[in-house]
Amino acid sequence: MVITVLYIRNRIIAKVFDAKTEVSATISKMSSSFIFFTDIGLTYEYMGEKHQSNNSTIKNQITKSLVLGQSVRIVLDSKNPNNAFVKDLFLA
């Protein structure tokens, strides 16, 4: 079950990065969940509409350097703009 969930998540992320639709976003929320994870809330505008997305990721040097209100580059799915990922978290 866990392997299936991870596989599906990785396919979604790969699909979004293959589309290469990149915009600027603002970190609107940061919180720790469990011991090893950070939840990052994002707000951004795409095609004139406001969107929100969340990224859950393992804590690392990049997540530790992010601050609330910071502007970051994200990659999103143009067909479903609520699927968005902080570019530096996945391409570092």
Write the layout of secondary structure elements.
Elements: H1 2-19, E1 21-33, E2 37-46, E3 49-58, H2 61-65, E4 71-77, E5 80-86, H3 87-91
Antiparallel strand pairs: 1-2, 1-4, 2-3, 4-5
Provide a descriptive summary of the structure in words.
The protein is an alpha+beta fold. It has a single domain (2-91), classed as OB fold (Dihydrolipoamide Acetyltransferase, E2P) (Beta Barrel), CATH 2.40.50. Helix content is 30%, strand content 51%. It has three helices and five strands; from the N terminus they run αβββαββα. The protein has helices at residues 2-19, 61-65, 87-91; strands at residues 21-33, 37-46, 49-58, 71-77, 80-86. It has a five-stranded antiparallel beta sheet. A hairpin with a 2-residue loop joins strand 4 (71-77) and strand 5. The chain is globular, with a radius of gyration of 13 Å. The termini are far apart. The mean pLDDT is 83.
